[in-house]
Design goal:
alpha/beta, Rossmann fold, six-stranded mixed sheet, four-stranded antiparallel sheet, 24% strand
Length: 278
């Protein structure tokens, strides 16, 4: 893939050139969280363009998943501001942030294993339910109309991953890679503006990872949304991400395009250790 041109944005970040005239989907400013005096994340600043595929990388324990937990309000930040499509999320909890437009997957797959593939996706459609609880209990016409729409929407989403034939299978019966894809489909069902993927290629073989790269691009193109991923597979990160931020000990040590990050000495030292002088 040819490298996308990244251009300066007024907040001193970079975004894809195609997004420069659009409001960024995410602006995190001076974000930080303390746990008992320990600064797990501090002075985290990032801007993600409206349709950008962004990467957040760093050594184990750098604080990457903690950042995702801050963005989705699993943890409330100790300091800083998070703007989602220009809207301050400071008074939101996890449910409100999801409704506002951030969806995520997890390092450890979190599916409802005893439900079918389709029902797992339909659970993700809760943001678009148009009937009341009472109408559902009484099986009123709006309930049946909503159920029909949910079924059709779930099947459309599954087709993106070529999983429509698995719709009636239990989630627990799927191969590992298919469970990973199902979790992404369920996240997309919430109709996000920003999709956070936490190690989406974990446990995948090279051919599955290559397929995932194509799927990530397809999601961005078909849904017109931004994607931010944490990943240790550098082939995937360098192959699909447009802007990359590198985290180490809870702080960003570098931002740039894939080629800039690959040639950044501080990044190399964070991963490989500082070389001793002869």
């Amino acid at each position: 893939m040819s490298e996308v041109k990244m251009v300066p944005y007024p907040s001193r970040s970079i975004v894809p050139e195609r997004d420069v005239n659009e409001r960024p989907v995410l602006e995190a400013m001076h974000l930080g969280v303390n746990f008992g005096g320990l600064h797990a994340v501090e002075e985290f600043n990032i801007t993600v363009g409206k349709t950008e595929i962004a990467g957040l990388i760093g050594p184990n324990g750098a604080g990457k998943t903690t950042v995702f937990n801050l963005l989705t309000k699993v943890y409330q930040p100790t300091t800083g501001t998070i703007l989602l499509d220009g809207k301050d999320t400071s008074n939101m909890n996890s449910v409100a942030v999801n409704k506002a437009g951030i969806a995520r997957t997890f390092q450890n797959i979190r599916l409802f294993n005893n439900l079918t593939v389709e029902d797992n996706v339909k659970l993700g459609l809760h943001n678009s339910i148009k009937y009341t609880t009472l109408e559902g209990i009484l099986r009123m016409p709006r309930y049946w109309k909503g159920e029909k729409e949910s079924h059709e929407r779930a099947m459309d989403l599954l087709k993106i991953f070529d999983m429509q034939d698995m719709a009636k299978l239990k989630a627990s019966s799927l191969p590992y890679g298919a469970q990973r894809r199902l979790e992404i489909v369920r996240a997309l069902a919430t109709n996000p503006k920003l999709l956070l993927l936490d190690e989406p290629a974990a446990g995948m073989n090279p051919s599955e990872t290559a397929e995932l790269m194509n799927t990530i691009r397809q999601i961005r193109d078909d849904f017109g949304i931004a994607i931010m991923l944490i990943e240790h597979d550098m082939n995937l990160v360098m192959g699909v991400c447009e802007g990359i931020a590198v985290l180490n000990y809870g702080r960003i040590i570098a931002k740039g395009t894939p080629s800039e990050i690959q040639n950044n000495q501080e990044v190399i030292e964070a991963y490989l250790g500082k070389q001793k002088e002869a």
